[in-house]
Design brief:
249 residues, Alpha-Beta Plaits, 2 domains, ten-stranded mixed β-sheet, 5 helices, 30% strand
């Protein structure tokens, strides 16, 4: 057996998330079908994280052990020939024996994408949350700075989730403005792990600051509360992208 690490990108619009669900289209099911078609194996495909319905990825990492001796490039090309056009395997490389895409990850980078303009987006309508009210990006950045460090992020976890700990370390949290007219607002959060819906909760909370409903220091109160009701609403799934997952060399 050999162990492989696949990097996978997908448009999550048509899927009920990464993980297998009965009678629902999922990214994991589509990848498993493609794998079976070219290797005749019912392999266990383990992802770095279970993205939710409608969430996208450009750097999802999937681990698999296989008896197939197909070269990396033939595997990549074969999988892409069998996958639907909204899922792409961008890389196949060897992984250490026993590689586990979830447990072995050191940190992840997520981006939340906003289209901040009176005119709704056309080309980006599946990938950016449209907000017509002008956002104060500087205030959002000031609020985001409070997230950096090791904190209890219980206020950003969807109620009902089960975790042994809600403490996580955020390495970087930024809010940047771009596009020809400044209409693109991107929130990037990098950390050693994330709670269920944590990034969407952070994005929704930052938008409350950006629209002037709250001041940047409100973020400190939200963190201290350890209560989901203290934070802003979850931002819609369509703006969230899993950008990168980092492992030990």
């Amino acid at each position: 057996m050999r162990w492989l690490k696949l990097t996978v990108a997908y448009d999550g619009t048509a899927y009920a998330g990464w993980q297998f669900q009965p009678n629902e289209p999922t990214v994991q099911a589509a990848l498993a079908d493609a794998w079976r078609a070219i290797t005749a194996e019912d392999a266990t495909l383990t992802a770095s994280g279970r993205t939710d319905a409608g969430v996208h990825a450009v750097g999802q990492v999937v681990g698999v052990s296989t008896a197939s001796q197909l070269p990396h490039e033939r595997l990549r090309q074969g999988l892409n020939a069998k996958l639907p056009d909204d899922i792409v395997v961008t890389e196949v490389v060897d992984a250490p024996a026993g590689f586990h895409a979830t447990h072995d990850s050191l940190r992840k980078l997520y981006r939340y994408q906003i289209h901040n303009s009176r005119v709704r987006p056309l080309m980006d309508r599946r990938y950016r949350w449209h907000l017509p009210q002008t956002l104060d990006v500087a205030a959002m950045q000031a609020a985001a700075a409070h997230l950096v460090g090791r904190h209890d992020f219980a206020s950003f976890e969807t109620t009902g989730s089960e975790r042994s700990s809600t403490v996580r370390t955020i390495i970087r949290a930024t809010v940047e403005q771009g596009g020809s007219g400044g209409e693109q607002v991107d929130i990037e959060v990098e950390g050693d792990g994330f709670l269920y819906n944590m990034v969407r909760g952070i994005a929704g909370t930052l938008v409350e600051v950006g629209r002037g409903a709250r001041q940047p220091d409100w973020m400190l109160e939200v963190l201290a509360a350890r209560d989901r009701r203290a934070a802003g609403p979850n931002a819609p799934a369509l703006g969230l992208v899993l950008v990168q997952v980092v492992y030990a060399e």
